[in-house]
Design goal:
The protein is an all-beta fold. The protein contains no helices and ten strands. The strands form two sheets. Strands 1-10-9-4-3-2 form a six-stranded antiparallel sheet, with no helix packed on it. Strands 5-6-7-8 form a four-stranded antiparallel sheet, with no helix packed on it. It is globular. It starts with 6 loop residues before the first strand and ends with a strand. Bound molecules: FE2/S2 (inorganic) cluster.
Length: 107
Amino acid sequence: MAENDFVKVAELGELSPGKMKYVEVGSDQVLLANVDGTIYACDNVCTHAFAPLAEGDLDGEEVECPLHGSVFNVTTGEVIDPPADESLRVFQVRIEGDDILVGPPAG
Ligand code: FES
Protein backbone atom coordinates (compact mmCIF):
# COMPACT_ATOMS: atom_id res chain seq x y z
CA MET A 1 0.00 0.00 0.00
CA ALA A 2 1.35 3.45 -0.86
CA GLU A 3 2.20 5.81 1.99
CA ASN A 4 -0.91 7.96 1.72
CA ASP A 5 -3.47 5.36 0.73
CA PHE A 6 -6.51 5.21 2.96
CA VAL A 7 -9.24 2.77 2.04
CA LYS A 8 -12.87 2.84 3.15
CA VAL A 9 -13.49 -0.38 5.05
CA ALA A 10 -16.74 0.18 6.94
CA GLU A 11 -19.24 2.74 8.19
CA LEU A 12 -19.50 3.98 11.76
CA GLY A 13 -23.02 2.54 12.04
CA GLU A 14 -21.60 -0.99 11.65
CA LEU A 15 -19.36 -0.72 14.68
CA SER A 16 -20.94 0.40 17.92
CA PRO A 17 -18.82 1.00 21.07
CA GLY A 18 -17.36 -2.24 22.44
CA LYS A 19 -17.65 -4.02 19.08
CA MET A 20 -15.05 -5.40 16.70
CA LYS A 21 -15.14 -6.08 12.99
CA TYR A 22 -12.83 -7.95 10.64
CA VAL A 23 -11.95 -6.25 7.35
CA GLU A 24 -9.45 -6.80 4.57
CA VAL A 25 -7.22 -3.96 3.44
CA GLY A 26 -5.28 -5.07 0.40
CA SER A 27 -3.52 -8.22 1.56
CA ASP A 28 -3.77 -7.30 5.27
CA GLN A 29 -6.31 -8.84 7.64
CA VAL A 30 -7.32 -5.99 9.92
CA LEU A 31 -9.32 -5.83 13.13
CA LEU A 32 -11.40 -2.70 13.72
CA ALA A 33 -12.36 -2.02 17.31
CA ASN A 34 -14.61 0.68 18.74
CA VAL A 35 -13.23 1.68 22.15
CA ASP A 36 -15.61 4.17 23.77
CA GLY A 37 -16.43 5.76 20.42
CA THR A 38 -12.90 5.87 19.01
CA ILE A 39 -12.06 3.49 16.18
CA TYR A 40 -8.75 1.61 16.24
CA ALA A 41 -7.28 -0.78 13.69
CA CYS A 42 -4.69 -3.48 14.28
CA ASP A 43 -3.75 -6.88 12.90
CA ASN A 44 -6.60 -9.39 13.10
CA VAL A 45 -4.20 -12.33 13.15
CA CYS A 46 -2.87 -13.33 16.56
CA THR A 47 0.94 -13.35 16.61
CA HIS A 48 0.97 -16.58 18.63
CA ALA A 49 -0.68 -19.13 16.34
CA PHE A 50 -2.62 -17.03 13.85
CA ALA A 51 -6.14 -17.20 15.33
CA PRO A 52 -8.60 -14.49 14.20
CA LEU A 53 -8.86 -11.94 17.00
CA ALA A 54 -12.23 -10.65 15.72
CA GLU A 55 -13.66 -13.89 17.10
CA GLY A 56 -12.27 -13.14 20.56
CA ASP A 57 -13.56 -10.77 23.23
CA LEU A 58 -13.07 -7.02 23.47
CA ASP A 59 -12.93 -5.52 26.96
CA GLY A 60 -12.17 -1.80 26.87
CA GLU A 61 -8.88 -1.51 24.94
CA GLU A 62 -8.03 -5.19 25.37
CA VAL A 63 -8.81 -8.01 22.98
CA GLU A 64 -8.49 -11.61 24.12
CA CYS A 65 -7.53 -14.22 21.54
CA PRO A 66 -10.18 -16.94 21.16
CA LEU A 67 -7.61 -19.73 20.90
CA HIS A 68 -5.12 -19.57 23.80
CA GLY A 69 -6.18 -16.39 25.57
CA SER A 70 -3.38 -13.96 24.73
CA VAL A 71 -4.46 -10.39 25.41
CA PHE A 72 -3.43 -7.42 23.27
CA ASN A 73 -4.06 -3.68 23.57
CA VAL A 74 -5.86 -2.73 20.34
CA THR A 75 -4.73 0.91 20.58
CA THR A 76 -1.00 0.11 20.74
CA GLY A 77 -0.80 -3.50 19.53
CA GLU A 78 1.13 -4.40 22.70
CA VAL A 79 0.92 -7.84 24.28
CA ILE A 80 -0.72 -7.65 27.71
CA ASP A 81 -0.87 -11.37 28.45
CA PRO A 82 1.01 -14.32 26.89
CA PRO A 83 1.44 -16.84 25.32
CA ALA A 84 1.89 -14.35 22.44
CA ASP A 85 5.16 -12.42 22.76
CA GLU A 86 5.06 -10.31 19.60
CA SER A 87 2.98 -7.14 19.23
CA LEU A 88 0.31 -6.58 16.61
CA ARG A 89 0.80 -3.88 14.00
CA VAL A 90 -1.47 -0.88 14.44
CA PHE A 91 -2.90 0.82 11.35
CA GLN A 92 -3.76 4.47 10.87
CA VAL A 93 -7.48 5.25 10.96
CA ARG A 94 -9.28 8.22 9.47
CA ILE A 95 -12.97 9.06 9.82
CA GLU A 96 -14.63 10.95 6.95
CA GLY A 97 -18.29 11.62 7.58
CA ASP A 98 -19.69 8.19 8.42
CA ASP A 99 -16.89 6.33 6.71
CA ILE A 100 -14.07 4.48 8.44
CA LEU A 101 -10.86 4.51 6.42
CA VAL A 102 -7.75 2.50 7.19
CA GLY A 103 -4.30 3.50 6.05
CA PRO A 104 -0.78 2.09 6.33
CA PRO A 105 0.63 0.65 9.57
CA ALA A 106 1.51 3.43 12.02
CA GLY A 107 5.15 4.08 12.84
S1 FES B 1 -3.37 -18.14 18.68
FE1 FES B 1 -3.77 -16.43 19.91
S2 FES B 1 -3.05 -17.01 21.84
FE2 FES B 1 -2.59 -18.73 20.61
